[in-house]
């Protein structure tokens, strides 16, 4: 669980957050050069950002013997949770939310820019975007969050084998936000 203000500040930079998210999403050890290609910054800049994430214990060096741009970095776990509410400054909270949403915006924009694919049955493979509102008591809210987490964990835990159909990486995002208006 990421909750220390210094960790949240480190993640509030878009390039650092995208690199952090890429390490968690792929569960692969990647170099600064590889992550620079994902984030759009130079390898030397990415090397700096990775050292910042490492200093906050947000990522780990995969191989302690290598150095510089060729050092491989990895996620220290398979999933993470961020408690943005621990940031006292509203501007810092907003910066963290913006950094968190930047990769999502990029992926949605890229998906929408591609021509729509159609399966063998003629059904388009849409990129759904959904939002909604439900009225819940506290117990139901807690239950809903637990059920959503269980669905995600089910698919994250799946191990692909070479006999499976070609897997595709699917990104998701969910949040349950109480109405404060």
Compact overview of the structure:
The chain has a three-stranded antiparallel beta sheet with strand order 1-3-2.
Write the layout of secondary structure elements.
Blueprint: H1 5-11, H2 14-26, E1 30-31, H3 32-39, H4 43-55, E2 60-61, E3 72-74, H5 90-113, H6 138-156
Antiparallel strand pairs: 1-3, 2-3
Helix pairs in contact: 2-3, 2-4, 2-5, 3-4
Could you walk me through the main structural features you see in this protein, from its secondary elements to its overall organization?
- Helix 2 (14-26) packs across helix 5 (90-113).
- The model has no long low-confidence stretch (mean pLDDT 82).
- This protein has 6 helices and 3 strands, in the order ααβααββαα.
- The longest helix is centred in the middle third of the chain and has 24 residues, at 90-113.
- The two termini are 28 Å apart.
- The protein has helices at residues 5-11, 14-26, 32-39, 43-55, 90-113, 138-156; strands at residues 30-31, 60-61, 72-74.
- A 3-stranded antiparallel sheet has the order 1-3-2.
- By secondary structure, the chain is mostly helical.
């Amino acid at each position: 669980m990421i909750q220390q203000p210094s960790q949240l500040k480190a993640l509030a930079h878009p390039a650092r957050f995208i690199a952090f998210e890429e390490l968690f999403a792929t569960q692969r050890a990647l170099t600064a050069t590889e992550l620079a290609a994902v984030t759009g910054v130079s390898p030397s800049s990415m090397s700096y950002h990775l050292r910042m994430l490492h200093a906050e214990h947000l990522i780990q060096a995969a191989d302690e013997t290598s150095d510089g741009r060729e050092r491989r970095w990895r996620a220290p776990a398979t999933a993470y949770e961020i408690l943005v509410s621990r940031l006292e400054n509203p501007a810092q909270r907003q910066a963290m939310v913006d950094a968190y949403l930047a990769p999502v915006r990029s992926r949605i924009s890229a998906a929408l820019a591609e021509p729509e694919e159609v399966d063998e049955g003629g059904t388009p493979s849409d990129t759904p975007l959904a939002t909604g509102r439900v009225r819940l008591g506290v117990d139901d809210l807690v239950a809903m969050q637990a059920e959503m987490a269980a669905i995600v964990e089910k698919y994250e835990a799946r191990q692909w084998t070479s006999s499976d159909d070609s897997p595709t990486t699917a990104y998701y995002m969910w949040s349950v936000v109480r109405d404060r208006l």
